[in-house]
Specification:
This protein is an alpha/beta fold. It has helices at 19-28, 44-53, 73-86, 106-123, 135-145, 161-168, 188-191, 224-235, 239-254, and strands spanning 3-5, 31-36, 58-62, 91-96, 127-130, 152-154, 173-177, 200-202. The protein contains nine helices and eight strands. Helix 6 links the parallel strand 6 (152-154) and strand 7 (173-177).
Length: 260
């Protein structure tokens, strides 16, 4: 089984003490690549050093996370854009809009999100989108910037069938599925039962959202296999087929050659 974890924060402090072991366990379960989304200006050094440590395993994204956005967002974007312009990144991310805890900076979040969408158009890169309680707002922004020139993933999808259908209408976008699919009352497996197979990629969002049977503990890329098994049950196929389909989808979206 060959897998790609398309969204994990393995550069954060939760993994500073045992990153080598985390990488070893991931490889033992078939994970070949992990994409690392930046959070904000404070995480740039850790992101860079983690990729340099395992350059054939970790692949970085660059962006400003919506929950880190402040009123001074223009200044926040300066160092991130400078590094983005000079580096080799697989995507713009993690970007988006989060209206779960606080809506006071909604206007600023939208401006930051749309600015970073324009970065992706300029660099011809996909985007990794955070959209907690903000699916419609995010979709409206994508349409304003120009959906025909954008592509990417709605990270950590756990929404309704209506939300899924709205995303699927954006023909260049897929959904990222993580441990939520294993949660007993999430209903996500049923929602995804008839989702086109070419519109799904897999992620862990480590250290968050660990799948059953590790729910409530620190998540890591090795646990991607539990997500594969649950999605296989939903689709009525074997786990190897799910691994092959979703990994091919990830390769296509993030521009990995077959020999990478």
């Amino acid at each position: 089984m060959k897998l790609i974890d398309t969204h994990a924060h393995l550069f954060t402090k939760e993994f500073h003490d045992d990153l080598d072991q985390v990488v070893r366990r991931a490889k033992e379960t078939g994970v070949e690549k992990v994409l690392l989304p930046n959070i904000d200006e404070t995480t740039l050094p850790d992101l860079r050093s983690t990729v340099e440590r395992y350059p054939d395993f970790f692949f970085p994204m660059m962006g400003l996370h919506p929950t880190s956005v402040t009123e001074d967002w223009k200044q926040q974007l300066i160092p991130i854009f400078e590094i983005f312009s000079q580096g080799d990144y697989r995507a713009v991310g993690e970007i988006g809009i989060d209206l779960y805890w606080d809506t006071s900076l909604q206007k600023a979040q939208i401006q930051v999100f749309e600015e970073q969408l324009r970065w992706s158009v300029e660099k011809d890169l996909p985007v990794s989108i955070h959209f907690r309680h903000a699916a419609k707002v995010v979709i409206d922004s994508i349409k304003r910037v120009g959906q025909e020139n954008l592509r990417g993933v709605f990270h950590s999808f756990g929404g309704t069938e209506d939300e899924l259908e709205a995303i699927l209408q954006l023909r260049n976008f897929c959904v990222g599925i993580n441990g939520v699919i294993t949660f007993k009352n999430s209903g996500l497996a049923e929602t995804l039962r008839n989702c086109p197979h070419d519109r799904i990629i897999l992620e862990t969002d480590a250290p968050y959202l660990a799948p059953v049977p590790h729910r409530g503990k620190r998540n890591e890329s090795a646990y991607l296999s539990f997500i594969v098994v649950r999605l296989a049950e939903a689709w009525g196929v074997d786990a190897e087929e799910v691994a092959a389909i979703t990994s091919n989808n990830a390769r296509d979206l993030f521009g990995f050659d077959n020999d990478e």
